[in-house]
Amino acid sequence: MARFVISPGRSELWAETRSSLHPVRIHTTGLEGIVEAEPAEGTGAPRLGTPTHVEVETQRLRSGNALVDGELQRRLDSRKFPRVRGALTASAAGSSPGTWRLTGELTLHGVTRTLEVEVTVRQLDPRTLEIEGGRAIDMRDFGLPPPSFLMFRMQPEVQVRARLVAERER
Fold first, then answer.
1. 60 contacts: CB under 8 Å, gap ≥ 6
2. In the chain, helix, strand, coil percent, each to 5?
3. Beta-bridge mates of residue 120
4. pLDDT for 43
5. Are the C-beta atoms of residues 94 and 121 closer than 8 Å to each other?
6. What confidence score (pLDDT) does residue 68 get?
7. Phi, psi of 114 (to 5 degrees)
8. Which residues, at least 6 apart from 48, have a Cβ–Cβ distance to it below 8 Å?
9. For residue 7, which phi and psi values (nearest 5 degrees)?
10. Quick check: helix, strand or coil at residue 166?
């Protein structure tokens, strides 16, 4: 297995949910972590292994709307739970070439849940991997009631998507 370091400036996270007024969209960079990968055979995708993990600071999760962001940060309790962390526990071939079905643990707001996600893994060049995938999560599964104030109410289901770019360690 080769070790890759996630590039915070090139890696991105998007999250979107509906609300009673408008969609709420979050976009951030600054993801950090380590990817262990086994080189691909032939034209296949590299296989991800453990210990692969990714983290992002909770305070980076912002929509650009001060009222929504204030309520979101209050609910996330970013002082007490400063990071969101995902850790890979298993991988298997996905439903199509170049994809992998990953099982891992997501820790958010001090609660850890096991989740599965299908990702696309690409070898961009001999030193660079790109991993992209997404899935829906329910905030309530992590002890987070959806933010609401006045007439504004967020739906509990959030569509999360990430694109990780990782550079091989020298």
1. 28, 29, 30
2. 10, 60, 30
3. 99, 132
4. 61
5. no
6. 81
7. -85, 130
8. 35, 36, 37, 88, 91, 100, 102, 119, 121, 131
9. -90, 105
10. strand
- CATH number for the domain spanning 116: value is 2.40.128.110
Identity (one letter) of the amino acid at 50? T
Q: What is the pLDDT of residue 87?
A: 97
Overall number of domains in the chain: 1
pLDDT at 52 (0 to 100): 94
Which residues are within 8 A (CB) of 124 and not within 5 positions of it... i.e. 6 or more apart? 130, 165
* Residue carrying the six token digits 């990714």: 54
Domain assignment of residue 14, given as a range: 2-168
pLDDT of 151 reads 74
Mean pLDDT of each 10-residue bin along the chain, 170 residues long:
96 92 91 91 78 95 88 89 97 90 97 97 92 96 83 88 95
Type and span of the H or E element at 68? helix 66-76
CB-based contact 4:26 (threshold 8 Å):
no
- Residue 74 three-state SS: helix
